[in-house]
Amino acid sequence: MNNCWRSCRTxxxxxxxxxxxxxxxxxxxxxxxxxxxxxxxxxxxxxPERSGPCTAIVVxxxxxxxxxxxxxxxxxxxxxxxxxxxLEPTNLKIGFVTHLHxxxxxxxxxxxxxxxxxxxxxxxEVYGPPxxxxxxxxxxxxxxxxxxxxxxxLEHSNKTGCNVNVHEIKPGVVYExxxxxxxxxxxxxxxxxAYGYRFETPDRTIVISGDTKPSRAIVENxxxxxxxxxxVYTQASSDLVSPEWKQYRLAYHTSSKELAExxxxxxxxxxxLVHRANPGCDQARTEECREAGSEEQLLKEMHQAxxxxxxxxxxxxxx
Length: 319
Ligand SMILES: [Zn+2]
Ligand SMILES: [Zn+2]
Fold this sequence. Notes:
Layout: H1 2-33, E1 34-40, E2 54-59, E3 62-66, H2 72-81, E4 94-96, H3 102-105, H4 108-117, E5 124-128, H5 132-142, H6 144-152, E6 164-168, E7 172-176, E8 181-189, E9 192-200, E10 205-208, H7 216-222, E11 227-232, H8 235-238, H9 243-252, H10 256-266, E12 270-276, H11 281-284, H12 287-292, H13 295-305, E13 310-312
Parallel strand pairs: 3-4, 4-5, 5-6, 10-11, 11-12, 12-13
Antiparallel strand pairs: 1-2, 2-3, 7-8, 8-9, 9-10
Helix pairs in contact: 7-10, 10-13
Bound molecules: zinc ion (2 copies).
The site of one zinc ion (ZN) has 4 residues, from loops.
């Protein structure tokens, strides 16, 4: 009896240990496959805490950038220093642009040239709406002196890594490899042609809104996705801006109330708030306006209207 109890207990403990270690191992493997690294959570506002829009989806060590905002390469270098080895700047080779507003593309030249100067040999691959190719051509022309000097002079830079292959895309699957399937879908951002992106990786489905007013495409493409990364502005700040700015916000961006409705319909596992825009208030620059558009106010409004898991994203956060 005593012996049996002892051996049963040993057996139970062995099973417990096996399943515990197995599930820990599984959790680690799952966590190591896909990392979302927020490289820039800002807007056109030159906020020293927030770089221009850029999200890195890192799958099995390969980074895929969404948007190329100001400061992207330096933020990637910081993430690399923090332990995300895939974000070594020379590893930045693929970018997806949501639309051609300057806050989303000011880092285009940076991603094209800085990793090349550091030794990247492959051309940069950029996916984006019509107009992306012209932008790339203009950047190459603008940096003609730099590129010539570095390739022909004593810096001995390679002649391939400063090139860019632009893929002007239509909605649908725009990219596929062993790590990801990337689908672009049309969102509504005033008169701009703008895309949101859906990433399917071996362990997660991630949807990135880009800049948009409330869009059915977000609901359809997320629909129970693991992570929804969405732009937003506060209702409180909107109440303080002029009728013209209110009109602009309605046509270009998404309020907390509207985002709560979208999230309630589409039920993401996690909602990450980025690009907390405050147009109208940014220009008025009053304390009242600034507070009405603050992160605290935004989270208060979101928690009032939405009961799913929601966080405010910061630069260099990893999910
Ligand atoms: Zn923007
Ligand atoms: Zn925009």
